[in-house]
Amino acid sequence: MLTSFSLQISVHGLSMAAFSEKTSEQVERGETAEFFILFWNPEDEPFPVRLRATEVPEGLIVIITPNDFMLNSSLVTEFSVEKGGHYVNTPYGLMKTTPVRVLVKVPKTMELKSYDVVITATVGNPSGGVSALLEKKFKFTVDVGTQGLFETTQPETTTESESTTTKPTVGNETQGITGMFVAGRLTDFILLLISIIVLAFVIWFIRFRK
């Protein structure tokens, strides 16, 4: 589903619209986040569009393709079978958008946290005067390492599992100790029984001799 960051401008005949398909992405260190900005022009007159990364956290690498192009009229009468085409329905009619790809490369040395990247789109011709030059900023969030942080908690669960598996061993030791205790009492009982038999025999022997 396409989301916000919409722009509709109309100054001295200059009319253009743009929005981003998504504004955030989660990646790991060493991976690349990918975003798209869709532009369309409901007017008959084409306009130059230039894009640049105006806010980039240190370490990130931003690649914009294309970053300088002429935005022609986007009005069409029907959908094309062309693969990968993006269309929007507007009050002006059906528009075929021009996609701009934004890649944010994350080095393996980046800190695990969220980073904001700002892309500025400049529309119009500077020679036409200040009023004919408009800008729109798009902010994208790259969340680095959340999944990796979650994975680091897994050894704790494993440790608990290993700790659990040692409990039967403790139980066996307890059973062994209990068995030794029972065996000890049995030995004492046998010795006592033998002593009683010996004592009874001695008493019988003394009486028999009398």
Which structural class is indicated by helix and strand composition? alpha+beta
CATH top level label of the largest domain: Mainly Beta
How many structural domains? 2
CATH architecture of the largest domain: Sandwich
State the distance separating the first and last CA atoms.
116 Å
Strand order of the biggest β-sheet = 1-2-4-11-6
Shape: rod-shaped
H-E order: EEEEEEEEEEEEEHHH
> Count the helices. How many?
3
Task: State the low-pLDDT regions, or none.
Answer: 1-14, 150-178
For this entry, what is the oligomeric state of its chains? Answer: single chain
Number of β-strand runs:
13
Whole-angstrom Rg: 41 Å
List keywords for this structure.
alpha+beta; 210 residues; 29% helix; disordered N terminus; 2 domains; Immunoglobulin-like; 5-stranded antiparallel beta sheet
Give a verbal description of the structure.
The chain contains three helices and 13 strands. It starts with 6 loop residues before the first strand and ends with a helix. It has two domains: 7-151, Immunoglobulins (Immunoglobulin-like, Sandwich), CATH 2.60.40; 154-209. Helix content is 29%, strand content 39%. The strands form three sheets. It has a five-stranded antiparallel sheet, with no helix packed on it. The protein has a five-stranded mixed sheet with strand order 3-13-12-5-7, with no helix packed on it. Strands 8-10-9 form a three-stranded antiparallel sheet, with no helix packed on it.
